[in-house]
Amino acid sequence: MNRKQSGITLIGFLVVLAVVGFAAFIxxxxxxxxxxxxxxxxxxxxxxxxxxxxxxxPSKIQDLFFRRLYIxxxxxxxxxxxxxxxxxxxxxxxxxxxxxxxxxGNLDVVGRFxxxxxxxxxxxxx
Length: 126
Description:
This protein is an alpha+beta fold and 126 residues long. The protein contains 2 helices and 3 strands; from the N terminus they run ααβββ. The model has no long low-confidence stretch (mean pLDDT 90).
């Protein structure tokens, strides 16, 4: 009677477990960086929909932007990372920043994020 063995061996299971564990570890390090980036994008899109944003002073727009980021607990974006450029009918807002997180020992993971949004919504400013 020959039995054909099927399934995974203990060593195979440990290898698969190590690979999945490493992928989960990397994901836990990267997820907050991208979550913060999507918070920045959401804040910028919210500003773009703000009535009268095209006529506002850049310092007022920047203040509104950082208020929105404060709600989302964003810490990586600094005022020096936010630039404004005058365009026809409004402003072009650019946020360019870098996030560095420790990975293992002396290895870091670095994320560079650069996004722009046109702030051209006309309307009354309250």
